């Protein structure tokens, strides 16, 4: 018997039972330049409702630039981004970064409530914040200051703050990049759990190809301002680290990344 099967929860039923709550994100012809350097050159991307998409690519290829445009934190020079049903992007999108960006003068609970905006004052706001804090495993830490938390715990608070308003689109820019290897794996599992429960559309920028393959339904790679690889990851969840299937896909993505690197201009020292 497979030891993993006995210890790992099986999430498949969640897929079947829950209707996606996420909103589809579509980007058409995105162009973004800085100082006459074209970073995105007419990029098209459609992310169906509830999909978990990972974006990979060499450092500086434009991953964060793209995510900022998708999340309405920046405006394209040409092209457009839409959420389906004409939903307002600001109201329905939350972003999580590598740094937790917590307010040092607010309690942990108050930091989560920030994610509710004005709705935090409405009846039930505090209760919702408490529930969300519990969902990230910090139900008993609400009254403490952020300064006493570990790096991983601070990122959990940042995740709770991002999720408390039940966004339909969650944009994640290397949110686990600063964590140690074990905490990172625990956070990946947490992220997968909450995504399976809430079924928001998730777009994760990551340097870590193994992380992309563990979490995502689909991996896209950016090169030369466009999508250079678009791969569906049709493996059952939860995925087993070190499995042959994941290793084969990882090799394929890494070899393309390295090929693209070889084509990059030489650095002059
Ligand atoms: N506000 C800005 N002003 C000027 N140049 C910028 C700005 N934002 C991004 N760039 C440039 O655009 C390019 C892409 O940057 P971006 O941050 O999107 O890369 P990235 O793929 O996220 O890289 P990394 O993996 O290192 O985070 C880089 O050359 C960067 O210097
Ligand atoms: Mg970046």
Structure description:
With 269 residues, the protein is α/β, with parallel strands linked by helices. The protein has two domains: 3-87 and 169-263, 3-Layer(aba) Sandwich (Rossmann fold), CATH 3.40.50.300; 101-167, no CATH class. 36% of the residues lie in helices and 22% in strands. It has a six-stranded mixed beta sheet with strand order 5-6-7-3-8-9, with helices on both faces. It has a three-stranded antiparallel beta sheet with strand order 2-1-4, covered by helices on one side. A hairpin with a 2-residue loop joins strand 8 (218-223) and strand 9. Helix 9 (209-215) packs across helix 10. The radius of gyration is 19 Å and the shape is globular. It starts with a helix and ends in a 6-residue tail after the last helix. 36% of the residues are buried. Residues 1-18 have low confidence and may be disordered. The structure holds adenosine-5'-triphosphate and magnesium ion. Magnesium ion binds at residues 63-64.
